[in-house]
Amino acid sequence: xxxxxxxxxxxxxxxxxxxxxxxxxxxxxxxxxxxxxxxxxxxxxxxxxxxxxxxxxxxxxxxxxxxxxxxxxxxxxxxxxxxxxxxx
Amino acid sequence: xxxxxxxxxxxxxxxxxxxxxxxxxxxxxxxxxxxxxxxxxxxxxxxxxxxxxxxxxxxxxxxxxxxxxxxxxxxxxxxxxxxxxxxxxxxxxxxxxxxxxxxxxxxxxxxxxxxxxxxxxxxxxxxxxxxxxxxxxxxxxxxxxxxxxxxxxxxxxxxxxxxxxxxxxxxxxxxxxxxxxxxxxxxxxxxxxxxxxxxxxxxxxxxxxxxxxxxxxxxxxxxxxxxxxxxxxxxxxxxxxxxxxxxxxxxxxxxxxxxxxxxxxxxxxxxxxxxxxxxxxxxxxxxxxxxxxxxxxxxxxxxxxxxxxxxxxxxxxxxxxxxxxxxxxxxxxxxxxxxxxxxxxxxxxxxxxxxxxxxxxxxxxxxxxxxxxxxxxxxxxxxxxxxxxxxxxxxxxxxxxxxxxxxxxxxxxxxxxxxxxxxxxxxxxxxxxxxxxxxxxxxxxxxxxxxxxxxxxxxxxxxxxxxxxxxxxxxxxxxxxxxxxxxxxxxxxxxxxxxxxxxxxxxxxxxxxxxxxxxxxxxxxxxxxxxxxxxxxxxxxxxxxxxxxxxxxxxxxxxxxxxxxxxxxxxxxxxxxxxxxxxxxxxxxxxxxxxxxxxxxxxxxxxxxxxxxxxxxxxxxxxxxxxxxxxxxxxxxxxxxxxxxxxxxxxxxxxxxxxxxxxx
Lengths: 88, 664
Prior knowledge:
The complex is a heterodimer of chains A (88) and B (664).
Chain A: H1 2-15, H2 41-55, H3 63-69, H4 73-87
Helix pairs in contact in A: 1-2, 1-4
Chain B: H1 2-26, H2 31-50, H3 60-79, H4 83-86, H5 88-106, H6 110-118, H7 128-157, H8 159-163, H9 167-203, E1 223-226, E2 235-237, H10 238-253, E3 259-263, H11 267-279, E4 283-286, H12 292-298, E5 303-307, E6 315-316, H13 317-323, H14 329-333, E7 344-350, E8 356-361, H15 363-382, E9 385-388, H16 395-408, E10 412-413, E11 431-435, H17 437-446, E12 456-460, H18 466-476, E13 481-486, E14 490-496, H19 497-500, E15 505-506, E16 511-514, E17 519-523, E18 533-541, E19 547-552, E20 556-559, E21 562-565, H20 566-575, E22 579-588, E23 593-601, H21 603-609, H22 614-626, E24 637-641, H23 654-660
Parallel strand pairs in B: 1-10, 3-4, 3-5, 4-7, 5-6, 9-11, 11-12, 12-13, 23-24
Antiparallel strand pairs in B: 1-2, 7-8, 13-14, 14-15, 16-17, 17-18, 18-19, 20-21, 22-23
Helix pairs in contact in B: 1-2, 1-9, 2-3, 5-7, 6-7, 7-9, 10-11, 15-16, 17-18
């Protein structure tokens, strides 16, 4: 799980070309968007695309669920792990 | 007396064929005598009509009729041939054909004139055009009928010679057709048109914008709003709309406040509250941004915030609507008039002065804008259901996501689409999508295949790149209809890349030319200044009045369709009290456009951040700007320097600043 979280952080940094920030600066439980990591709605869409490419996962067609998945690195990792489990 | 005489005459001319037959064949009246009778009749009619001298223009119809009768009688008398008596119906058909036909050419067509006389509400309404179109078809039908009927009448005149009927039989045949069958045919045509009209009326889209609707404008069960997808069947109807606006009015009227800020995630609550505020003649400020600091500046003394988001010290719309009692019927049916010219609506935009600027707007111009779209694409609109990815607090989202579907009575989705994946659920109906190019860009990357049925797309807020246009067509099966405009000017031009390439066609109601600076000047219904509105968009004018866009020129830039003033961001950074000098520029990489800021910290700033990691300083300024701007336009990259590069005049050039951000 820790490895997955680390990978997600790397994807966040590389796909959004974030500067001056290392994976360890991102707090697992902090919000990714808005005040926490400070990403915006365009970043959210972009991150969705990058995560799809990297992990082959798709997000839900349900708005509320997606908001949950994108809440934090923890939430994202859980979702990705669960989806992988399903497809195995 | 005169009236009675005229009615007598109309009956006489209608029964003319039967009378002629009766007198000629049954009573064997000599032809000469009959023709004299007819001349006398013609004279009597002429006298009765021309006696009405008080009216300025003589009525041409009875005059023409009397003239025709007179000619028929005279010719018949001179030649002793009954043919001239019998040609009368042919002439009538010919005259009617010419008259009806001439109104098709000169317009408005005759049936539409009758319709407009019978129903005074048609003139000046949005559906006037479709009524006129329908009436044109009816006029055509009558013209064809007159051709057919006139020809048939002509044949009956010569029935004796053509079909070898004996004279008596031929006369009988003539009067049977002209005095009976032709009237029956006319009746059949009337009846058929009446039935077709009922159907056409049901199908015809009645346009009732916010300033024009009445309680009876739509059926009580007509769907205004739907939740999720259309086939889920979770609807809000016209009846609900009237009831909920009545509740909201009651609430608003119970307060002293004159000026409100309105923010709703939900399009239904938005529509109800917005309409009620206008009905109560209040000022409405629309904002997508409800951050604490923004509100601290925007909420002036005496103003209140109406929202469906849980914000402190706000009026919570869902509670007002869902918890209050249903008002009595007369309050629901009553729809206070909204005057489009006196509505006070404000949209926030980033001015170049540093503070969010509330731009005043009126329903009048919004609806003129919608009217053009409706006149052009009503058929695309009315057969679909609206979904929007754009917030209705911005002008594009407001015009296309709310006021347009409201006016055309097209159901719209309660919630905005926020994730491209949500499109996957919309496979049950024909949808009309309102989106920004930024959203489309990610959607075509996210989705390989969508099973949407024949959708239609409106985009605005920025241009769609040719590559994105092609990808959009691949995914949705249609090229987006792009609208070019801004908060100040609203929509002013459009293009659809499969038909127009990159060339923009101005709206009929916009005037466009090139200023001395190479940028577009615009006069639209929104812009009253004869000098026009100076945009920052550079353009190339083409000969036919169309144009190509060539990029932006000044310190106002667009970041993923969000317009932002670089000066404003710079001013805010200076306000932090930690910055001595600053330059903000717009950059882009493979992924997106973004802002980048180069700062020189002052003494206080240096002390504050000494020993801190750069990431932490970035974050400090990011969070500071979050108080004033949407996240998207906040600088993504930061440089902290001892001095900004300048030329001899002390001017900071974009190129040199941009060099600071090149990847090390």
